[in-house]
Amino acid sequence: MSVEWNDIFRLPSAALAGRRVPKTTLTKNAHLTRLEQKALDKVSFIEHWATVQKSSTRIPPHVDEERDIQAVVFLRCELTGRSAAYAELARVIHPCFPNPTVLLLENGGEVCLSCAVTRMSQAERGATVVEDVTSTGGFDPADPLYASLLADLALNRMPQGDLYECVRELSWLLRLGRLTGSLGFYPSCAPAQRVRLLELSSERDELVARRNTIAEQRRSRDLTLNETAKLRMEQHEVEGMAERLFEEINEICSKGATS
Q1: Exposed (0-12), middle (13-18) or buried (19+): which is 50, by Cβ within 10 Å?
Q2: How far apart are CA 201 and CA 194, in angstroms?
Q3: Where are the beta strands (DSSP E) in the chain?
Q4: Pairwise CA distance, residues 181 & 184, whole Å
Q5: Per-residue confidence of the chain (259 residues) as pLDDT tens digits?
């Protein structure tokens, strides 16, 4: 399945590229390690889908002491279907580009959107580094649960002040998309509560990772009964903390929906 991405983003035709990116080009230009090259085996096709910049969208660049953002690059990636290693692929592909990048990852009937914000390197003059990566996680784009997210991704709904404003808003929306599956609804909140919702979202990601680690440890056959009991108690505690976080997230979003 190939998603009609411009039905979602609604970019002007001048922004669309539609050019194949050979994986060998990434490997060579980004000096990928052997392990990173192996991760790219999970991708069957990479396309430079679009570039959002002043000449194509009239959104001005952002230049200051920290950043020089002249464009935001969109890449469409078809996965082989053998693995939905979204986080691993984002970790490999995003740093290959000096610009902020948006990955449109397709895996059969599932998609994942990932956005990387960049800044200038403090260690190497003229170089850029990935400052922040946010992704939705995998979801079915036909699922009505995600309809509001996809509608919000249209370019005309984004801030037009400069490209940094635009990519930060996109990053924010993808974070909301990540919460959608867990909450059972697309969250929205008052602007004054955004920072708090981001904090809760980050804490939630940490708790999910911790819970998954504990669950993996509990599968070991080498554990003693005492060790198993301790892990079970720890997992119960982590799940309780996650539940309390979701209650606070629900409260913030409920207020946002009525404000």
Answers
A1: buried
A2: 10
A3: 16-20, 43-53, 62-63, 68-69, 71-79, 101-107, 110-120, 128-135
A4: 5
A5: 578 999 999 999 999 999 999 999 988 888 888 889 998 999 999 999 999 999 999 999 999 988 999 999 999 999 987 777 899 999 999 999 999 999 999 998 899 999 999 998 877 776 788 999 999 999 999 999 999 999 999 999 999 999 999 999 999 999 899 888 878 888 888 888 988 987 887 898 799 889 999 999 998 888 899 999 999 999 999 999 998 998 898 888 876 554 5
